[in-house]
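Hey, sorry to bother you again with one of my protein questions. I've been puzzling over a protein and I'd love to understand its fold better. Take your time with it, there's no hurry, and the full record follows here:
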Amino acid sequence: MHIEVPSVSSETLRKGNAGGEESSNTIAQRVPQAQRDSKRQGHPNHLLSTSQIKQHCEISADDHTLLENAIEKLGLSHRAYHRILRVSRTIADIGGETGIQRHHLT
């Protein structure tokens, strides 16, 4: 998995950024959203089988093409394809979304 993170100045690291930091309480409030997976399929997303991925990780035809192109261009395996879908499902769950959207994939 690759996530782009913008660089942070050393001053911001030293002093912190009051406007952009989340408290542990705020983050903890999102945990139940991430646990939607267990309610939906009885176990966490990382344990989804291939047939369960097809059932719970549906994406649009355009997003499927995008993912296939990325897999081919980056030389990733079938296993990576499934992992991307499982992680995307988790990101959607954390965001409170019922379906996987393009921004969850990317």
